[in-house]
Specification:
3 domains, globular, Immunoglobulin-like, mainly beta, 5-stranded mixed β-sheet
Length: 224
């Protein structure tokens, strides 16, 4: 995956979301809500305690300026059976905004795209690396569309009817993928011990490491 392109794309999504909130505030006469403008990377969920047989991998990665989140992906170094996704990820269209702005999906498992606005939208998805169109569907109010991503990678999401709308889909064959928070902290729970390839996408940087994860609380800091 192209880290430079990803950094620019995620940064553009963050800026577009903030500009949209300011435009909506100007039209309604109401101040923009900090809560509505916050990115999904505003906080890292509290991970459950590690068990005797799994690890909670956590640490710090480089911070991206401008509010764009860094992405951390752990992929087993050897082929292994991985748990299925616990629920179907979904990206909704609400108030002329894609939510979430960055969505993780499992390669080969279904994801859903919805329209909860009272206006017609479409969802146009394009693979970042190849620039090939993945799908482009119209979604009326209350509509939904299911898609299974066949390849790992980053996918640009847009609406042709409302060009200011933008989001990113991260398709990964591993369930161990998260956004870091605004301070660069992250946490991944229920990781089986073993050898992993670690990839961090931080703006224009793509950082790769090999690591042997052990059970319990496993500290993994990644520097530039």
């Amino acid at each position: 995956m192209n880290g430079s392109l990803l950094g620019r794309r995620v940064f553009a999504v963050a800026i577009a979301s903030m500009m949209l909130m300011l435009m909506l505030a100007a039209c309604t006469g109401q101040p923009a809500s900090n809560e509505a403008a916050a990115t999904p990377a505003a906080a890292v969920p509290v991970a459950p305690a590690a068990t005797a047989t799994t690890a909670v991998v956590s640490g710090h990665v480089p911070v991206v300026g401008g509010g764009a989140p860094s992405i951390v992906i752990l992929k087993p170094a050897t082929a292994t059976a991985l748990p299925a996704q616990p629920s179907k990820p979904a990206m909704d269209q609400v108030s002329l905004t894609f939510s979430p702005a960055v969505m993780f999906v499992r390669t080969g498992q279904p994801a859903e795209f919805r329209n909860s606005d009272d206006v017609l939208h479409n969802v146009r998805v394009r693979e970042e690396a190849t620039k090939e169109g993945t799908f482009n569907v119209a979604l009326p109010t209350g509509g939904a569309y299911e898609h299974t991503f066949a390849r790992d990678g980053f996918y640009d999401v847009g609406c042709d009817i409302h060009p200011g709308m933008a989001a990113v889909v991260v398709a990964a064959s591993t369930p161990y993928a998260v956004l870091a928070d605004a301070q660069g902290n992250y946490s991944i729970a229920d990781v089986p011990p073993g050898a992993y390839a670690v990839t961090v996408y931080a703006g224009t940087q793509t950082i790769e490491r090999q690591v042997e994860v052990t059970a319990g609380a496993f500290q993994l800091d990644i520097a530039s």
